[in-house]
Amino acid sequence: MLDFQDKIVVVTGAARGIGQAISIELAAVGAHVILADIQLEPQEKTVSELQSRNQKASAYQCDVTSDESVKEFASHVLKNIGVPDIVYNNAAFIRSGGILNASVENIRRELDVNVLGYIRVAQDILPNMIVNTASPNAFVPPPIVAGNLLGYYITKGADVSMSQCLAMSLKPTGVGVSIVFPDLTYTESVHELTGTAPSEFNTGFADFVST
Hints:
CATH superfamily: NAD(P)-binding Rossmann-like Domain
Structural class: alpha/beta
Strand content: 5-15%
Number of domains: 1
Number of strands: 6
C-alpha cells in the first residue's frame, strides 16, 4: 500500500460524490488533502469535519474551465502549501443526451470540464504525480446509461488517451501518470440524471455485469 502520510494531494471535483469520498479516505491515511471544486460550500463542510478529527485538509474554489482560475489556484497551493505529491483530476460535468438529441453545447461543456480541465490542472501543477479519473465505461458503456450519455463517454475515452500520452511523454522526467477506473458508482449526479433509486440502479448494473 502506498504511504500517504504527509503527502500533499490535490483532488478536483471534490465537492461531492467520488471526489469527496476520495478526499475523506486520503485524509484518513495521513495525507494533506486539498479539495478543489467550483462549489465551495460543500467542500468547506467536508474540510471542517476532517479538521475536527485532526486531519489535514483545505478547500478552494476552482473552475477548471477557466485558465485564470486554475492558474490562481495552482499558484496559491504552490506558494502556501507546497508542491503536490499527487494531483487527482476528478472534476466532471455530465448531461444526458444520445446521438439524436444530445446538445452540442452540453458536449462542448463536458469536453471543457472533463478533458481540457484536466489538461489545465496538469499543466499548472505538473512537477509530481498525476492521477486521472476515467471510466471503464469508456470502453463498454452499460445499457442502463449507454444511450443517453454520449458526451460523457466521449470525454472519458479522451481522458484514457490523454493519460496514456502523458505517461509516455513524462516517463523520462520521473513523473508518474495513472488512470483510475472506478466501477459505476451511484452518486448525486447519477441520481439527478437517471432518477433511479439506489436499488434499481444496482440491479440494472448487476444484470449488465452478469450478461
